Amino acid sequence: MRRRTTRALFAALAAMLALAASACGTGGPSAAGDDKVIKIGAWLPLTGAQATFGVPERAGADAYFKSVNAQGGINGRTIKWIVKDSAADPQQTVQIARRLVDQDGVVAIVAANGTSQSQATFPFVLEQSKVPILNTLGGDASWYQPARDGLFGLQTLYEDQAAALGDWVAHDGAKKVLVVHSDPAAFVNVAKQVGPAARNADPSIQVKRLKVKLATTDYSPVISKVKAQRPDAVVLILQASEAAAYLKEAKLQGLDAPTYGYAPVAAQSTLTLAGNAAEGLKSVQLVKSPNDDDPAIKEFRRAMAKYEPGQPADFITLWGWEAAKAFAEVAGTIDGPVTAASLTRAYQNARHVDTGVGPVLTYSADRHLGTRDVQKIVARNGRWESVGDFFTPPTRD
Predict the structure, then answer these.
(1) Whole-model pTM?
(2) Is residue 329 in some structural domain?
(3) Which residue among 25, 194, 289, 317 is least enclosed by CB atoms within 10 Å?
(4) Is residue 251 domain-resident?
């Protein structure tokens, strides 16, 4: 009798443990085990050289999630966003991903940062755990062509940004364009997209490239080479600090060719470091200018001042805000439990998602990158100002 009773108790206990495990998994109503909390996670570089991106991105997304929670959350569900420091290290990011999924029980990775870091987690997060990775900052074309299960992005690829610049310089009337870019392959591949897009708009345009060693600080010889080419427009595919060094030296040597840059160039740090040498710099960005007199931008600035007063309301914080807001807009369409599976379906069915600060996003079963659009901006009086509306660059080959 005792043996049968003991066996029955063990069987009941095992059933209870199995039920608890299933409730905490990604298939439950939410990662909290009920339908009142949406638990999501992210990895961001909060220490090291890349922390200049990770810290403000976290602040922007956090400001949005805090403001939404203060208003009752998403359909009454509170958002719990768990962020861990990746230090921009892929191996460390894989370990973080395991903790977020296995220990914290997140239903999705949202607004994470880093191309190589995120890609290192795909086998475990996307393929083994079936947890979606949503609105990651970073990425390349191989992520979305073809569409990868559970991976959805909102950031226009660098190559498309370069194509937009090529189209822009051509329509501005430039005939001789020089693309100044850093020497790593990632920069070279982006720089190569300027020429075809420019020639698509104007077959007579000449586009050449000038390679510069990454982390160059002395741009005096570089500007001398640029002047020898006599370009009537220059496109910069450089880091912000190097773009600022280029602009300062160009002004010093009297080079007055109009200058264009992609999103990494369009940073507040470029204006701070370059000073008045940045005046008139044209660039493309992923979002509107944080200085715009626009209701959605004003909402962003108010939330930053209230919830993250130590961080400036700049482009990088706005990237984080946009990623968080896009997630909330899509998650808000779910009728029923918010799970990894329901979030994936919601993104596949998401059409015309408008955050107000970035381009309108549209997804489908075979389209997992929500946009190719960019915003034109110009540096005026030490501030970035939006020019016109978001536009779609020419299709790349």
Answers:
(1) 0.89
(2) yes
(3) 25
(4) yes
